[in-house]
Amino acid sequence: MKKKLVLGFFLSLFAMVLVACGGSKTAKETETTTEAKKEEVVSGASEKSYTDPKELKDSYDVVVIGSGGAGMAAAISAKDAGADVAILEKMPVIGGNTSKSSAGMNASETKFQKAQGIEDKNDLFYEETLKGGKGTNDPELLRYFVDNSASAIDWLDSMGITLDNITTTGGMSVTRTHRPTDGSAVGRYLVDGLYANVTERKIPTFVNADVTELTDKDGSVTGVKVKIAGKEKTVSAKSVVLATGGFGANMDMVTKFKPELKGYVSTNQEGSTGDGIALAESEGAATVDLDQIQIHPSVEQKTAYLITEAVRGEGAILVNSKGERFVNELETRDNVSAAINGLDPNYAYVVFDNALRGRVKAINQYVEKGLVVEAKTIEDLAKAIDIDGATLKTTLDTWNKAVADKSDTAFGRKTGMDNALSEAPYYAIKVSPGIHHTMGGLKINTNTEVLNKEGKAIPGLYAAGEVTGGIHGQNRIGGNAVADIIIFGRQAGNQSAAHAK
Ligand code: ADP
């Protein structure tokens, strides 16, 4: 059977599987329509069924806290390694920030790259990530990350999650950002595919389950305290995996570590409050790089909606309020953000054409949300966004010549130059930087064990994904967070299951 069909088959099996899990309710049954709508906006996740709180047992081999990509990858691999696993998610829907991720998953030396004649090397992926992170990335974590990226792509593919449409984001010389076949945003596809696998394995998933404390005995973590269905319950576990995401929605924490971000919008879902950091710190965990908070250059400010870097990766340009380019659009995120912040006024327009819209399916979401200005000609577009038409026309003509010549003499851009911007209608989205990703977090080793201040593993405590720090250094490359959650989430599942034996 084809993989796509397998995935479709899993999705259609949801109802049956959940009945088998016992007593589950749909989100629709448990929430009012208004709340459900709000949750949809908050998380971007599609409607799903979850396990009834009554099913929560007193004890598991592995408890996974958080249901984003890292949590679900951990739960699946722990289950496949023979562990009895449960997922606890504090929000009313699963998916976390993962649901909102758009660009793709970076990986090198993959079978899909090879099939498409793309030459890449793990060492190059390593070097470019290190350069992007200003040389401050944890070298051991980074080595593990690049060396296990291709097998993570294979692992997803084996579960019906196929990322074979490859594009570019800022800070890479080779096409290595893997997306769903139709070029759509990676997040929802990934969350749906992982959750299909979670339910297929009958891994119970509890939502509205807020973990407030870790329990311990003789220096080992022994379980969690969770608020669920109006009660607090202690659940013991041989291993606990923290997959609670970052703290980009916790403005007190953000401004504590980076005061200059006061007043910025945040692209984060509201559950990204840094709980995992506090939980682990209470067990003596060390942290790294908490002041390294990434702002993303292209965020629509009224909705805090992120405009994926893949739009630029597929060929869009950025223009200032005069209609002129001002930066290599595929510089790293920190540099592009700084360039926009240096403008007066400090906003830019992402400008693209109809052909590009066809290549980046996420744009349909932006159109649906009313974020996109559309016009039949470049002059009309300029008028609609209050820019001088002749200037914008000259900018596009110059850019299209640079694409044809494969030489951007103005800003030295080298990627995302395969297609001219010449097919009407034309589009523009107004953007400025927004808080996006917390690169710092818990210190872990390559076994995803959480380390204490002496560099020793805290027995029974594992962490993966945005809650951890070190992998990205001082600037994360777009597409590396999805790679991080899958590669280290998978490892956390294996290691936590082994520890539970
Ligand atoms: P990652 O990308 O690292 O997987 P995500 O943001 O996608 O991170 O997912 C993290 C999930 O963890 C979110 O859905 C968030 O609501 C959940 N979470 C955060 N804190 C807690 C907590 N204290 N108890 C249960 N779930 C939590």
From TrEMBL:
SUPFAM superfamilies reported in the protein's UniProt record: FAD/NAD(P)-binding domain, Succinate dehydrogenase/fumarate reductase flavoprotein, catalytic domain
Domain named FAD-dependent oxidoreductase 2 FAD-binding: residues:
61-482
Q: Would I find Protein transport among this entry's keywords?
A: no
Tell me the superkingdom of the source: Bacteria
One GO MF annotation is: steroid dehydrogenase activity, acting on the CH-CH group of donors
Enumerate composition-biased segments (Basic and acidic residues). 28-41
Keyword annotations for this protein, in alphabetical order, are: FAD, Flavoprotein, Oxidoreductase, Signal
What's the family?
Answer: Belongs to the FAD-dependent oxidoreductase 2 family. FRD/SDH subfamily.
NCBIfam families on file: flavo_cyto_c, PRK06481.1
Its protein name is Flavocytochrome c
Q: Which organism is it from?
A: Streptococcus hillyeri
